[in-house]
Every structure is written in structure tokens, then in C-alpha cells.
Recover the amino acids of this structure.
């Protein structure tokens, strides 16, 4: 298990997927914040999916990063979804109620399906 | 049941017997009365006897005095007559002798007489003439004194008589002339012819006459006193005693008697002759007397001896006393016999009453027919017999019913006890859960309950509770409550749900409005984690292995049985190896001692000692409560239940030591990760440890200014123990406020999460500040190695 953080951000338009791997802790959260800064600053982005499949460890510092992202997107009606956290990560999320249960998914595919459904509803709503 | 027959009582000892008392009192009273009467009578009699004797003495004295005076006067008259006649004889010797003889013969008291004439008037002129006539037989014998050569004129008695002017009695003397007898002589001078009686001193007497009176003549006056032991009389002439009633005189005076002299001196010295009121003069103890002077040195004395006076009275009195004692003894015997006639039937009544238990009051017929009080009592007891028999039969019946009821209650108690599970243990790998409980009912059937059993999934379920009542109804409600709780316990993993599902079933049809408090719990033997839910029950304690006794604080719902919708929340906790979860009913804390004090929580905490098994903890508390309330009536059921997580036989591994110095936090974290991995701690456990350490160590360095920080790690099957020591400023991470967590609140504060995580994740946490260092011990759960 590496104690470094690997971060990559993909996607364009309103939806971005950020893959976090390794450790998100007091040593690495500043890098994660820096990487996410442009995404959060971009008003076009309304959806951020955090793919945590390979995130081995998160500390309270890392949780604050997640909170900041939720707050930034929430301010403009956006959302942060969490996909596929490992059990220990999921446990920490649960303990501090970091993210509503409904916004945690067991895989990115599940998150995508959720998003598709959301979009359809929005679209049909616009049709009405 | 049948009263045990009293041991046949022996007759009362004689000194307690009524009989003795009656006889004794009779005797004492009779003796007292006799004594009082006797003393009074004796006093009167004594006074009378003394007065009589005194009167008699006085009378005799007067009589004897009068007799003696008469004698003296008679002799004096005879002498005077002779003297006068002698003048008329005028010197004729024959006539003179005839006169003398006539006088001597006619005077019965005289033994002899004398005529002595001086030379002047002598028949033989020139020589004195003296003739003595002594009585002899019926006649007299003369003797011529002058003829015998006696010079009459020279005799002192002649000269003294002629010198006197009146007759004189001589002192008693022994008279040889008159036959060797004691005499008293009256000497009468012969007055000159021309001299009248009234002028005796007119001239010198020419001669004299004398008459001799033997003293025995005087003693005749004392005859009346002789033979009377009470009185003594004595006659004296001058200093000489002539007669004494105690001296038998044959012409001799009594011998010298100083005692008589003394008495006479005393009596004569006494004032004027006593008046009639108090006539006698006391002379000494028991002796009184009186002296009567008779003139010219003559005197008569009477002595009265009181002892002699009283002797016959005393003799009579002693006879009376003796006779009285005999009579009293006879009376006592008589009263004894009388008393026996009373006590015998009483003894018979007593014996009959003693047989009451076996035969009832079967009174002997002789007692029943008596017409006195004894008969009345016997008849009364006899008629009470039937009522008593009835009463005894009823008592026996009631006792049998009570016995039956008791045995049913005992049966109910046994049945109830049989519903309570025995102590058990749930073994898991190297350690196990150990559960033990005791219920001590206040009455034979109690209202407390407990239950536990291991479930199929390996969890241990337990419940403890208290019904609002006692006795058989409470026992029935208790049985129902236990059954319902056991049923609901099968279908859910949540103690809160068990209680909320049991609530409507127990409230249903509960007309008597009984209710039960209950505490339900599930314990995981693998991890020691447990969850509790309470329906108004006492909060349990956790006795930690290190000695802390913690009240497990939790909210409780409403008691079961009233509100069908009662719902409590579940609260989770953790038992580390060696910890004991202790549950109890309020009978423990509300047990009272004889002074009425409550056992209370403080004493309970004292009784809870670390390092004891569940069974020992239960025994400790029960013993403490029993010792406290010894002698007081148990007010309530006492139920205690303890669940202990037993430490594995194998001790935890030695702590592994890590230091932030010199290589820094990241290096330490890496080392710890490696160590955790090599000890089979899974990713979750590693993540927990890292999370906790990161928060604490980063805090210590960033905020506390710590330069040195060490971590010790040790593991058991189910736990990881971290000891973190840093030299930063004092900070207790366990003191922070609980966070209000809301996932949907995007504006919530993002600080404090680390400390919240530590508190939430650790099973047990202890902070101490020692040696200027923060020392924090955390116990984290771990999944057992697969």
C-alpha cells in the first residue's frame, strides 16, 4: 500500500470524474485540493463523481477536501457523487455522515446509471 | 398444629404452696394477736398486783404500828399506875411488894417488875430498898437487889431514871436477872407526893419502878408479815433492831443487818411521811419501803419486794405463753388441713387442664358436683370443653390449609426458578462470554426476572426486568413477559426492536395494569460489542478490567405493559477482555438495613470489583446487599445479572514500540502499517489505526508543539490497543463536544471531525496527563484473523 496520492480528473462539460488512489490524508490533501481547484472554480461543472476504487485511506483532512467540493458544487446546484469506496473508506464516510447514503454508489457505472435517470427526469420535466 | 402438651408440672414446692402460706399467715397473725393481748394484759395485771401489794403493806404497817403503840401504852399505863400506887404505900414494904406483884401479874407484856426506893422513902429507913418480881408460872419470884449486895443508888439506870421527869424506855439489852433474855425496860420515876402529873419537876423523885418487857412481845406485832415473801417488816428501838419478820426470834434480836440500817436511814431522811397517793419510797431496784416512827426512838419499817410481788404473775404469764404457743401450733395444723381441702381440688383442676391437649377438659365427677367455688370453676371449664374442641379443630384445619397453600407457593416458586436459565458461558475461540445471574425473591414468588440464551448466530441475548407487583399475579405476568421477550428476541438483531415488539403484546388484555421494566441486550462474543435497550429499567454498570466502574448512560423507553407503542432506542457499547457488564433491579439499590437506610449506588459501586468473573461479581453484590440488610425484612426481589468478556488464556503480545523521532511521522506511519499487515490486521484495521494516529499526532505537533511522540501497539484476538504519548501541551482529545452531523448540510463546520472519529471508533479511551506528557490509551476493534 502506497502512502502517496494519485489523482486524475477526466471528463468535460458539466460532469467530471475524479479518480483518487492511495492515501488522501494530511500529507496529500493539499495536492488534491490544488488539482480540484480548477474544476470547482469552473461554473460549467455541476457534477463531480469521485471514483474511490483505489483510495486506500482517508483521514479527516481528506474528508475536508470532500466537504469543500460538495460545498462548492452545492452552492451552484451541483452534486458530488461518491463511487465504489472501499469498506474502510465507506465506514469513515458513514461515521461522519460525509455524504448522504443516496449519493454513494458501489461503482462508477451505478453512478452513471443514477445520473442518466436524473437527466431523463430533468429532460421530461422540461418537456412538461 | 396440636399444641405440644406441657411437661406435667410437678406440685409446687412446699414454700410456694397456698396451703403453706395460709397456715403460715394464720400462725403469724394468731401469734401476733396473742403477743399483743398478752403484753397488754400483763401490763395491767402488773400494775394491779403492785398496787394491791402496796395497799396491803400499808395496811399491815398501820395495824402493826397501832398494835405496838398499844403495847407500849399499856406498859406505860401499868408502870404509871404502879408508881402512883407506890406513893400511897407510903413506905410499907409488904404493900409495896403486893402492888408490884399485882402489876407484874396483871400486865401480860411484862416479864418482871422492879421497885427501887431511895434511902429517903425506903421501908428500911436509911438504906435503899429494891425488890424485883419476876414472873414465874402463875406467880412471881422476888429477889432483893440490895440484899444481893447491889448498891441500887449507884446504878446508872437508877440515877438516870430519878433524874428524868417522865418514863423512859431503855435500849434493848440482855437481861441475866430475868432469865437470860433480851428485854426492853420501862423506867418510871416515882414523883413526890405533892407533885401533880402536870408538875413533875416539882421535886426530886424518891424512887422508881420499872417493867421489863421481853422483845418477843414486840415481835408478835410482826407475825402478820412472817410467811409473806412480798413484805418484810422490822421494829427498832433507837439504833438497835428488836424484831424482823424474817428472823425467828427466841428472845434474841436479829443479827446486825447493814442493809436494813441503810434502808431505815433512807426512809427517815425522806421528807414527811408520804401522802396516800404515793406512799412508798423507792429504795433500789424492785424494792420500796415505808418507815413509821412510834415515838421515843421506836419505829416500824416495811419493805416491799416488787419481784416477789410479781413472781406469781410472771409464773402465770409464762404458763399462758406456753399454752398460747400450743394453741397456735394446733391452729396452724388446723388451717393446713383446711387449706388442703381447698388446694386439693385446685390441683385436680390443674391436672385436668394439663390433659386439655389430649382429652379436653374432662373434669373428675367429684369436682363437678361440688357446690363451692371449685365446683363452679370445674363446671365452667367443663362447658368450655366443647367450644375449645371446636376451636382446636378449626385451628388444625386452618393450619392444614395454610400448609397446602404454602406448598403450592413453594411449587410456584420452584416453577418460577425453573424458568430462569442456569449460568452459562459462550465460548469463542480463545476466550468466551461468561454470564451469570441470581434472583432472590422477597416473597416465595417474586416479580423480578431474567433470561438469556445464546442465539444461533452466536450472539448472546439477555434480558432482566422487574414486574410492578409481587406475589402470584406478578409471577404470572413475569412468565408471560419472559415468554414474549424470548419470542421477540429470535426475530431481530436489535434489542430496541425486541422491546418495541413486546410492548403491544404485553399491553394487550392487561386489565390489572401491571407493568414491567426491562433491559434487553445482545452481546457479540467475538468483539465484545453489545447493544442495549431499556424500558424504564435501571441503567447498568460496566466494570472495567482496570478498576473503573462506569454507569452505562442511555435513554430508556416507557415500561412494558401500558403503552403498546412504547419504543426505546438501542445503545451500543463495548466490553474489553476482563470487563463485566453488570445489570440489576432496583431491589439492590433500594435494599434497606435495619436503620432504614438505602443500599444505594455508592455501596453498589464499592461492591463492584475488577478482575472478578461474572459469577464472582454477582456473588460479591449479593453478599454485600445481604450483609447490609441483615436483620431487615427483604422489601423487594433482588436480581443481578453480569456478563463478562473473559480474557484469553494467552496474554496479548508484548507492545510494539514506535517513535516519531528521528525519522518523522510518515516514516512512523509506514512502519506501523507494515507491522499491522504482518500481524494479520486487515485493511479496515490498518485504516482505523492510521486515521486515529494521524489525527492525534498531527494535533500534538501542530497545536501542542510536541517534539517527541511514541506509539505502543498491542493486539488481542479482537482488539488493538494503542498507547500514544507526546510531550506537547496538555490536551485531552476526548473532551471535545459531540458534533451535530447532517449529511445534507453543506454549510456545516468541517473542523473537529478527527476527534469525532477517534471517539466514535474507539471501544474504550482513557486520557491521562502524567510527567508533562499526554498519555492516551485507545482500544480499537479488529476483525479476527481468518
Amino acid at each position: 500500500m502506497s502512502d502517496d496520492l494519485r489523482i486524475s480528473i477526466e471528463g468535460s462539460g458539466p460532469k467530471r470524474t475524479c479518480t483518487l488512489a492511495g492515501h488522501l490524508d494530511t500529507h496529500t490533501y493539499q495536492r488534491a485540493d490544488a488539482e480540484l481547484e480548477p474544476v470547482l472554480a469552473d461554473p460549467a461543472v455541476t457534477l463531480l463523481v469521485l471514483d474511490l476504487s483505489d483510495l486506500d485511506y482517508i483521514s479527516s483532512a481528506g474528508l475536508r477536501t470532500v466537504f469543500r467540493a460538495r460545498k462548492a458544487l452545492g452552492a451552484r446546484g451541483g452534486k458530488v457523487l461518491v463511487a465504489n469506496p472501499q469498506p474502510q473508506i465507506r465506514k469513515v464516510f458513514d461515521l461522519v455522515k460525509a455524504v448522504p447514503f443516496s449519493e454513494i454508489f458501489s461503482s462508477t457505472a451505478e453512478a452513471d446509471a443514477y445520473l442518466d435517470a436524473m437527466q431523463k427526469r430533468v429532460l421530461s420535466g422540461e418537456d412538461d | 398444629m396440636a399444641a405440644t402438651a406441657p411437661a406435667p408440672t410437678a406440685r409446687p414446692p412446699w414454700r410456694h404452696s397456698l396451703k403453706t402460706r395460709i397456715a403460715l399467715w394464720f400462725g403469724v397473725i394468731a401469734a401476733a394477736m396473742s403477743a399483743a393481748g398478752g403484753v397488754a394484759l400483763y401490763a395491767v395485771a402488773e400494775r394491779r398486783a403492785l398496787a394491791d401489794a402496796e395497799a396491803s403493806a400499808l395496811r399491815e404497817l398501820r395495824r402493826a404500828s397501832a398494835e405496838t403503840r398499844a403495847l407500849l401504852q399499856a406498859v406505860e399505863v401499868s408502870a404509871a399506875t404502879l408508881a402512883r400506887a407506890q406513893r400511897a404505900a407510903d413506905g410499907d414494904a409488904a404493900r409495896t411488894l403486893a402492888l408490884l406483884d399485882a402489876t407484874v401479874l396483871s400486865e401480860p407484856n411484862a416479864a418482871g417488875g422492879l421497885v427501887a426506893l431511895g434511902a429517903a422513902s425506903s421501908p428500911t429507913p436509911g438504906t435503899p430498898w429494891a425488890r424485883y418480881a419476876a414472873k414465874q408460872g402463875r406467880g412471881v419470884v422476888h429477889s432483893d437487889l440490895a440484899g444481893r449486895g447491889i448498891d441500887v443508888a449507884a446504878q446508872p439506870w437508877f440515877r438516870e431514871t430519878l433524874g428524868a421527869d417522865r418514863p423512859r424506855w431503855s435500849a434493848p439489852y440482855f437481861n441475866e436477872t430475868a432469865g437470860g433474855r433480851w428485854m426492853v425496860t420501862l423506867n418510871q420515876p416515882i414523883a413526890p407526893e405533892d407533885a401533880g402529873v402536870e408538875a413533875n419537876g416539882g421535886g426530886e423523885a424518891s424512887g422508881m419502878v420499872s417493867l421489863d418487857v421481853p422483845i418477843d412481845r414486840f415481835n408478835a406485832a410482826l407475825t402478820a408479815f412472817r410467811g409473806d415473801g412480798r413484805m418484810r417488816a422490822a421494829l427498832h428501838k433507837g439504833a438497835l433492831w428488836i424484831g424482823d419478820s424474817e428472823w425467828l426470834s427466841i428472845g434474841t434480836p436479829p443479827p446486825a443487818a447493814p442493809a436494813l440500817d441503810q434502808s431505815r436511814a433512807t426512809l427517815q431522811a425522806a421528807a414527811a411521811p408520804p401522802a396516800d397517793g404515793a406512799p412508798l419510797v423507792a429504795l433500789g431496784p424492785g424494792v420500796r419501803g415505808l418507815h413509821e416512827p412510834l415515838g421515843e426512838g421506836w419505829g416500824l419499817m416495811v419493805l416491799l419486794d416488787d419481784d416477789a410481788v410479781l413472781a406469781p404473775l410472771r409464773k402465770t404469764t409464762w404458763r399462758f405463753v406456753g399454752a398460747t404457743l400450743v394453741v397456735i401450733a394446733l391452729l396452724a395444723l388446723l388451717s393446713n388441713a383446711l387449706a388442703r381441702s381447698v388446694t386439693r381440688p385446685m390441683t385436680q383442676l390443674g391436672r385436668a387442664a394439663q390433659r386439655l391437649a389430649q382429652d379436653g377438659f374432662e373434669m373428675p365427677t367429684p369436682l363437678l358436683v361440688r357446690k363451692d367455688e371449685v365446683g363452679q370453676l370445674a363446671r365452667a371449664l367443663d362447658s368450655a370443653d366443647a367450644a375449645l374442641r371446636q376451636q382446636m379443630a378449626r385451628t388444625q384445619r386452618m393450619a392444614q390449609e395454610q400448609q397446602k397453600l404454602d406448598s403450592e407457593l413453594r411449587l410456584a416458586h420452584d416453577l418460577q426458578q425453573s424458568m430462569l436459565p442456569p449460568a452459562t458461558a459462550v465460548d469463542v475461540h480463545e476466550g468466551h462470554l461468561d454470564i451469570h445471574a441470581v434472583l432472590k425473591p422477597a416473597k416465595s414468588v417474586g416479580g423480578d426476572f431474567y433470561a438469556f440464551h445464546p442465539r444461533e448466530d452466536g450472539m448472546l441475548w439477555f434480558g432482566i426486568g422487574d414486574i410492578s407487583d409481587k406475589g402470584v399475579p406478578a409471577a404470572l405476568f413475569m412468565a408471560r413477559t419472559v415468554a414474549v421477550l424470548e419470542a421477540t428476541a429470535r426475530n431481530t438483531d436489535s434489542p430496541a426492536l425486541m422491546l418495541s415488539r413486546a410492548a403491544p403484546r404485553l399491553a394487550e388484555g392487561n386489565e390489572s395494569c401491571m407493568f414491567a421494566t426491562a433491559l434487553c441486550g445482545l452481546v457479540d462474543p467475538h468483539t465484545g460489542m453489545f447493544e442495549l435497550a431499556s424500558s424504564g429499567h435501571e441503567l447498568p454498570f460496566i466494570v472495567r478490567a482496570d478498576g473503573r466502574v462506569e454507569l452505562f448512560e442511555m435513554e430508556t423507553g416507557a415500561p412494558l405493559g401500558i403503552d403498546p407503542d412504547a419504543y426505546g432506542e438501542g445503545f451500543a457499547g463495548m466490553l474489553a477482555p476482563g470487563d463485566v457488564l453488570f445489570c440489576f433491579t432496583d431491589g439492590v439499590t433500594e435494599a434497606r438495613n435495619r436503620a432504614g437506610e438505602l443500599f444505594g449506588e455508592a455501596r453498589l459501586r464499592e461492591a463492584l470489583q475488577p478482575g472478578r468473573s461474572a459469577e464472582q461479581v454477582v456473588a460479591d453484590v449479593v453478599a454485600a446487599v445481604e450483609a447490609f440488610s441483615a436483620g431487615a425484612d427483604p422489601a423487594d426481589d433482588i436480581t443481578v445479572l453480569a456478563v463478562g468478556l473473559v480474557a484469553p488464556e494467552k496474554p496479548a503480545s508484548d507492545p510494539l514500540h514506535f517513535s516519531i523521532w528521528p525519522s518523522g511521522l510518515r516514516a512512523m506511519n509506514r512502519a506501523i502499517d507494515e507491522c499491522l499487515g504482518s500481524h494479520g490486521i486487515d485493511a479496515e484495521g490498518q485504516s482505523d489505526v492510521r486515521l486515529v494516529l494521524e489525527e492525534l499526532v498531527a494535533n500534538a505537533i501542530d497545536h501542542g508543539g510536541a517534539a517527541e511522540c511514541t506509539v505502543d501497539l498491542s493486539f488481542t484476538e479482537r482488539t488493538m490497543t494503542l498507547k500514544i504519548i507526546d510531550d506537547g501541551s496538555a490536551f485531552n482529545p476526548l473532551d471535545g463536544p459531540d458534533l451535530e452531523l447532517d449529511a445534507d448540510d453543506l454549510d456545516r463546520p468541517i473542523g473537529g471531525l478527527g476527534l469525532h472519529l477517534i471517539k466514535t471508533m474507539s471501544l474504550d479511551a482513557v486520557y491521562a496527563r502524567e510527567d508533562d506528557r499526554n498519555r492516551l490509551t485507545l482500544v480499537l476493534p479488529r476483525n479476527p484473523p481468518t
User: Anything to note?
Assistant: Chain A touches chain B at residues 1, 3, 25-27, 56-61, 63-64, 67-68, 70-71, 74-75, 86-89, 91-92, 95-101 (CB under 8 Å). Residues 20 and 124 of chain A are 34 Å apart (CA to CA).
